């Protein structure tokens, strides 16, 4: 399948999605959203695909929601369309995915990266929520996900001043999991994705659900959810295989069952 604003390729069990709207620094217009929804749904539905990497260009992961598209829209239209709600279909992706960020990840670009299970940043990455300078505020989850990732002080600083955070600060603040040289970004993200793709697939989904639950619930309920999912995994063929493989000192052979 081909997309107007994305390049999608598969490398073994890894899907590589590249946002490709260079004329607008990958600004996220309705077409990019529609393409992302379709590409992520195709990935989630394909049992041969086990991890996805989303990246942009060297200069911009994405410079935000498309300001020119939003310029003429008032409250009634935004509310009526439930503008940005489509991104919930991207965050509903069950299987793991990584954002590989080089250059600008601003506004909706930062918010899209934060929807990923984790972010790998190039040393050139710049994160920001500059919407205040446009008379608005984050609208794709930035005020919530950024605050959960970096805490109130830095989230307030970023949202109220609209300043950018470089990759080193983003790593110190736990917004990104690691920094790599820009030239190696996609290769390093693919390497991480291949490692995930080599894991038992049901366990990968369960691990993702557990970590995400930490942001949705209290500690005791989260720990119970974790323990019950752990118990549930013990009913899978891949658990029997994984433990047998350890004891027999050989690699596991996963069936996803
Ligand atoms: N929407 C639409 N077009 C955009 C865009 C955006 N978010 N960001 C960049 N572009 C376009 C520019 O208009 C320009 O197009 P033209 O050549 O047709 O004029 C092209 O991309 C190149 O951009 P610049 O010439 O501005 O490039 P630069 O290197 O001088 O500056 C930049 C780069 C600092 C990222 C600058 O483009 C910029 O500040 N962009 C806007 C960043 C922003 O405010 N993002 C938040 C958007 S609101 C939002 O995202 C809401 C939300 O919560 C979801």
Automatic annotation (TrEMBL):
Cited SUPFAM superfamilies: ClpP/crotonase (SSF52096)
Entry's transmembrane regions: none
Coiled coil regions in record: none
EC class of the enzyme, as a word: lyase
UniProt KW keywords: Fatty acid metabolism, Lipid metabolism, Lyase
GO BP: any one term: fatty acid beta-oxidation
Matching PROSITE patterns: ENOYL_COA_HYDRATASE (PS00166)
The UniProt record lists the keyword Nucleotide-binding: no
Single GO MF annotation: enoyl-CoA hydratase activity
Catalytic activity: a 4-saturated-(3S)-3-hydroxyacyl-CoA = a (3E)-enoyl-CoA + H2O; a (3S)-3-hydroxyacyl-CoA = a (2E)-enoyl-CoA + H2O
Record's function text: Could possibly oxidize fatty acids using specific components.
Protein name: enoyl-CoA hydratase
């Amino acid at each position: 399948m081909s997309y107007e604003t994305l390049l999608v390729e598969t490398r073994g069990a890894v899907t590589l999605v590249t946002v490709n709207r260079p004329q607008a620094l990958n600004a996220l217009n309705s077409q990019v959203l529609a393409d992302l929804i379709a590409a992520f749904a195709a990935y989630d539905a394909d049992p041969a695909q086990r991890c996805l990497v989303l990246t942009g260009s060297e200069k911009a992961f994405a410079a935000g929601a498309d300001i020119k598209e939003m310029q003429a829209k008032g409250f009634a239209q935004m509310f009526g369309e439930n503008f940005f709600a489509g991104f919930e279909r991207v965050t509903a992706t069950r299987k793991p995915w990584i954002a590989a960020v080089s250059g600008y990840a601003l506004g909706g670009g930062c918010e899209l990266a934060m929807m990923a299970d984790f972010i790998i940043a190039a040393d050139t990455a710049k994160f920001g929520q500059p919407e205040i300078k446009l008379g608005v505020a984050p609208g794709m989850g930035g005020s919530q996900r950024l605050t959960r990732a970096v805490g109130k002080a830095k989230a307030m600083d970023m949202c109220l001043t609209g300043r950018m955070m470089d990759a080193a600060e983003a790593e110190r603040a736990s917004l990104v999991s690691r920094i790599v040289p820009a030239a190696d970004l996609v290769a390093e993200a693919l390497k991480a994705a291949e490692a995930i793709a080599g894991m038992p697939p049901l366990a990968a989904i369960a691990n993702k659900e557990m970590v995400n639950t930490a942001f949705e619930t209290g500690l005791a309920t989260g720990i119970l959810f974790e323990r019950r999912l752990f118990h549930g995994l013990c009913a899978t063929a891949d658990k029997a295989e994984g433990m047998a493989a350890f004891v027999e000192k050989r690699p596991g052979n996963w069936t996803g069952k």
